[in-house]
Amino acid sequence: MMNNSESGAETFGPLLRRLRKASGRTQEELAADLSARRGYPLEQAMVSRWETEERLPDPASRALLSAEFGVPEEELRRAVQLTRRLRRQQQSQHQDDQEQDVERRGFMQASVGAGLAVMQPSALLNSGRRLGADAPRQLAQRTARLRRLDDFVGGGETYRMYVGELHATTKLVGEGVYTDAVGQALRGIIAEQAQLAGWAAYDAGMYEEARGHYMTALAASKAAGDRSLEGNSLAFLAYLEWAVGGGSGIAYAQAGFEALGTEAHPAVRALLADRLAWQHATAGHAREADYALEVAEEAIREQGDGPAPDWAYWVDRDEILIMTGRCWAELHRPLRAIPALEDALGRYDDTRARDKALYLSWLASSYLDAGEVEHAAAITARVLDLSEGLASNRPAGRARLMMQRLEPHRALEPVGALLERVEV
Question: Three-class SS of residue 410?
Fold first, then answer.
């Protein structure tokens, strides 16, 4: 946690702790009050992370705290900024060594998993700092190999690597000399890398950092004239809005889908229809979600004129089945959710532990909706098994939600044993 500095100004952790204690509340009581105010659960652990400054609240969370304590949002924002500034000062003397260490370990891991050549982006500069016509292709290949790590590694482990790559490419583009066509392609690479960094931040629960990267991706994709990348940036923002309860998820997802031009690859149209369906489902709009899922299903069956962009390499029939199941699970329609989820999950390997744990959690939720409590508990136990050691906040969060739903059934032996497991 940061020390107070700068003429007695408080960093965020001490400020929040002072406000909470002045109101006579425990962390658990504050979490319960904030949950009631925003309409969905906020865990006591998040309040603890804010007070220890392990995490800092995003703008939506600061607005919530401002309303709860009756203090100006600007005061909270200044405290967050001070925390970050002091943190940077404390880390600056070690920054070079840390970055080199992360780069070395990260690229060794990528090399093993995807055959990534250890080449720094700056090596692409020719004499006169000129970037040749082949530079975008080389950077795109490098980005594609880094992207594959997300199949197996959580955002907590990939975030700094992705940010380092984004910074290196941005610096390269800022210092290099190139043609207009090369520049346009390079801005598209920056958009892809910013999306990667944003996704890793989101996966690690760093929502404010994710928003910044997604806005960078949106600006870069527009500068590149790539409407598919622009649509994907908006779809990422939609997902983030859903996570923080910002209320603009549907608008972002709809704008993302509408941003696509007629030349968009079918896999891209399927992906963005998929994301739109999710926003409608989580808002309780069954008819709209069903229509968007039909659009996604129809698109994924189409044959494109060429390969999909690499950032959509993972979009296939199983992805549409998974989202179909998740949407109907959110809408509490288990008879529709369970077949879709079980069909796709039957082909998921345990090496994709994060995604499999997440998707199993919606399967468990659907079985609970169907009244199959013991089976829901058994699947939730599997979620816990797969979640162990993952550098991702999301599976653990989904598991906690399932524990809350299972609590009224504690008297059943499988449920009681599961709840005791997490209480130890």
Answer: coil
What is the b/e burial string over 365-390, where b = at least 16 CB atoms within 10 angstroms of the residue's CB?
Answer: bbbbbbebbeebbebbbbbbebbeeb
Q: How far is CA 120 from CA 135, 143, 189, in A?
A: 12, 12, 15
Q: Is residue 50 part of a domain?
A: yes
What is the pTM (predicted TM-score) of this model?
0.71
- Tokens linked to 291: 């229509």
Return the SS3 of 5.
Answer: strand
Q: Cβ atoms within 10 A of the Cβ of 342, count?
A: 13
User: What is the pLDDT confidence band of residue 25, given thresholds at 50, 70 and 90?
Assistant: very high
Same domain, residue pair 118 and 217: yes
Mean pLDDT within 330-340: 97
Q: 90 pLDDT band (50/70/90 cuts)?
A: low
Task: Check if the beta carbon of residue 231 is closer than 8 Å to that of residue 268.
Answer: yes
**Tokens coding 93:** 């003397």
Query: Is the CB of residue 121 less than 8 Å from the CB of residue 172?
Result: yes
Which domain-ending residue is among 207, 225, 243? 225
CATH of the domain at 81: 1.10.260.40
**Residue 150 shares a structural domain with residue 172:** yes
| CA nearest neighbour of 173 among 113, 219, 129 | 129
Question: Are 377 and 402 spatial neighbours (Cβ–Cβ below 8 Å)?
Answer: no
DSSP states along 345-409:
HTT--TTSHHHHHHHHHHHHHHHHHTT-HHHHHHHHHHHHHHHTT-S-SHHHHHHHHHHHHHGGG
Give tens-digit pLDDT for 164-221.
999 999 999 998 999 999 999 999 999 999 999 999 999 999 999 999 999 999 999 9
Cα–Cα distances in angstroms (integers) from residue 414 to residues 61, 210, 380, 423, in the given order: 36, 38, 11, 14
**Residue pLDDT, tens place only, 228-242:** 999 999 999 999 999
| Residues across the chain | 424
